[in-house]
Amino acid sequence: MLNPVILSVGVAAMAVFYYFQSRNASVPFQIEKILLQSFKDYKKNGWPYDVYGPISHSHRNMPRSGQPLGWIIVDTIDTLMLGYNYTTNKSNKKEFLEQIQFVENWVENDLDYNMDSEVNIFETTIRMLGGLLSGYYLSTDLNIGNPEVYLNKAIDLADRLSLSFANSPSGIPYSSVNLRTGEAIKNHVDNGASSTAEFTTLQLEFKYLASITGNKTYWKLAEQVYEPLYKVNNILEQYDGLVPIYTLPDTAQFWGRNIRFGSRGDSFYEYLLKQYLLTHEGIYYDLYRAAINGMKKHLVKESFPSGLTYIAEKPNGLEYQASSKMDHLVCFMGGLLAMGATEGHTIKTARNMNFWDEDREDDWLLAMKLTHTCYQMYHQLPAGLSPEIVVFNYPEEQRNEFEEITQLDRQNWWNSPSGDFFVKPLDGHNLQRPETVESIMFMYHLSNDTTYREWGEEILNNFAEHTAIKGNGIVEAYTSLNDCLHVPTGKKDNMESFWLAETLKYLYLLFQDDIDLTEIVFNTEAHPFPVLEIADMEKSNLTTGWGLK
Ligand SMILES: *[C@@H]1O[C@H](CO)[C@@H](O)[C@H](O)[C@H]1NC(C)=O
Ligand SMILES: *[C@@H]1O[C@H](CO)[C@@H](O)[C@H](O)[C@H]1NC(C)=O
Ligand SMILES: *[C@@H]1O[C@H](CO)[C@@H](O)[C@H](O)[C@H]1NC(C)=O
Ligand SMILES: *[C@@H]1O[C@H](CO)[C@@H](O)[C@H](O)[C@H]1NC(C)=O
Ligand SMILES: *[C@@H]1O[C@H](CO)[C@@H](O)[C@H](O)[C@H]1NC(C)=O
Ligand SMILES: *[C@@H]1O[C@H](CO)[C@@H](O)[C@H](O)[C@H]1NC(C)=O
């Protein structure tokens, strides 16, 4: 006879199993619902404006000319297409298709980049050019709509953005361009310096477009920024592969000494690796390797008391004190390090491949630790949502290595329950940013460890609960927060385009089983491009045209 204890344990285990099964199955459906809700609310109350407040339904366009760039619309196309591809619900599939057709029609007939307005080349490239290119890729791959609509618009936009390179003696583009006149315009502040991460975050888009069109000019323009940057500043010797966050475009010289993986620095590192993943050009892996080794040497620190691993800043140069502050933006690094280690293979497979070495093993372990830290930046907060910036606590015996956190700071700042980090009152906002769920998505698919899905589900539920806007008790839309340090959270009346382009997309892909990360590369705005075929590159003579020797 069966032992009753074993039997009841067995029944309980099965109940738990079925509970998780059904809960798991419903998560992607919950994300589809949030995505469609957010998009349809925008369509009803904000269309086709670039900036939208879901509480007041206020809206405006960004360009001076008053015309729309398609900021939210173009950024969202591929998320809708992925929803269409993966949904298992017939009514949602139909819904996604309707939205895609509506958007495509607008892009074809109403979106006009011939506008007398100055735009930032980086933001416009990653969001608009990136969105159009992945729209082209997915509409081709999934056989929905007309890919040429996206491609033609992408070419038109890229040709306008290309003019930002025209007048720079060094080859580094100015930070803005007038889309109609082609006038290239330097940054109006910071002594005219461009953010280093801005002109080094155009390469995936321009290179993918070069491979589709066979037009090598896009490739060469994007590539030409690196040689002056590396040689003029002697980055490998003087900076251990790292870069200050500003560069003077005329001379390629760095301006200031502030080194960080947060804003203005972040995607410089990201695009070194991702160019290698997209095009297999070896030089970019080498530059990435140098940067990561420099990062480990100078910036990777552990908090007190729990030893959470994070990436510190060096505001005054590598030889001076660190700042223990970390932007939420830095949380993409877990996923990046994991992709750099495995090149998109699962960790099990990657460890058996020829390229595996100690550096990659160390990168993988660091990826796990950083992703865990970023999860803690959600988990320890009252609403379970991360603030924009945290400041990590350091052990007393290391205090000379860090910018001081005073007794008064400790009293005035928000303290995490574990004591490992603080939040300054002005940094307690949450813009529904993607970087942590991005890393969680990569870590899950590369490790096959369900812990990451549990973290993702927890974060999803917190967004669903604490960023929702309700009318008559019914959820109507989702918005950014100006205060995530208290419950109820303070709502901000702005929906960032990356809520739809990135955060919901990465959450959605986290819960799909059929993701092959060796075949696609996401640009820094989560727009997926297919890994380039060597044969296509050779046909158009798309090869690396520079070296450090
Ligand atoms: C579409 O979904 C299928 C699984 O249903 C998947 O195998 C395929 O990779 C997806 N395609 C894209 C482009 O995401
Ligand atoms: C499909 O989704 C719709 C809402 O979009 C829902 O009403 C319906 O119950 C779902 N069908 C199934 C079979 O889950
Ligand atoms: C290739 O791209 C450049 C840069 O935008 C453009 O000026 C040129 O006209 C393009 N060439 C062709 C053949 O389309
Ligand atoms: C992932 O883990 C599950 C068990 O949780 C297992 O069934 C599956 O085969 C694993 N997949 C891979 C690719 O290792
Ligand atoms: C999904 O189901 C598995 C068991 O089938 C469970 O271990 C896991 O915690 C569930 N939840 C998530 C978010 O993966
Ligand atoms: C390919 O590019 C290289 C370097 O720019 C150049 O020397 C060579 O002539 C080109 N070949 C073709 C077939 O265009």
TrEMBL record:
Pathway: Protein modification; protein glycosylation. GO terms for molecular function: calcium ion binding; mannosyl-oligosaccharide 1,2-alpha-mannosidase activity. Belongs to the glycosyl hydrolase 47 family. Pfam families: Glyco_hydro_47. It catalyses: N(4)-(alpha-D-Man-(1->2)-alpha-D-Man-(1->2)-alpha-D-Man-(1->3)-[alpha-D-Man-(1->3)-[alpha-D-Man-(1->2)-alpha-D-Man-(1->6)]-alpha-D-Man-(1->6)]-beta-D-Man-(1->4)-beta-D-GlcNAc-(1->4)-beta-D-GlcNAc)-L-asparaginyl-[protein] (N-glucan mannose isomer 8A1,2,3B1,3) + 3 H2O = N(4)-(alpha-D-Man-(1->3)-[alpha-D-Man-(1->3)-[alpha-D-Man-(1->6)]-alpha-D-Man-(1->6)]-beta-D-Man-(1->4)-beta-D-GlcNAc-(1->4)-beta-D-GlcNAc)-L-asparaginyl-[protein] (N-glucan mannose isomer 5A1,2) + 3 beta-D-mannose; N(4)-(alpha-D-Man-(1->2)-alpha-D-Man-(1->2)-alpha-D-Man-(1->3)-[alpha-D-Man-(1->2)-alpha-D-Man-(1->3)-[alpha-D-Man-(1->2)-alpha-D-Man-(1->6)]-alpha-D-Man-(1->6)]-beta-D-Man-(1->4)-beta-D-GlcNAc-(1->4)-beta-D-GlcNAc)-L-asparaginyl-[protein] (N-glucan mannose isomer 9A1,2,3B1,2,3) + 4 H2O = N(4)-(alpha-D-Man-(1->3)-[alpha-D-Man-(1->3)-[alpha-D-Man-(1->6)]-alpha-D-Man-(1->6)]-beta-D-Man-(1->4)-beta-D-GlcNAc-(1->4)-beta-D-GlcNAc)-L-asparaginyl-[protein] (N-glucan mannose isomer 5A1,2) + 4 beta-D-mannose. One of its GO terms (biological process) is carbohydrate metabolic process. Keywords: Calcium, Disulfide bond, Glycosidase, Hydrolase, Metal-binding. This is alpha-1,2-Mannosidase. The keyword Hydrolase applies. Disulfide bonds join C331-C374. InterPro entries: 6hp_glycosidase-like_sf (IPR012341), Glyco_hydro_47 (IPR001382), Glycosyl_Hydrolase_47 (IPR050749), Seven-hairpin_glycosidases (IPR036026). GO terms for cellular component: endoplasmic reticulum; membrane. It is an enzyme of class 3 (hydrolase). The active site is at E123, D266, E388, E435. Its EC number is 3.2.1.-. Its cofactor is Ca(2+). Gene3D superfamilies: 1.50.10.10. The keyword Hydrolase applies. Ca(2+) binds at T524. It comes from Maudiozyma saulgeensis.
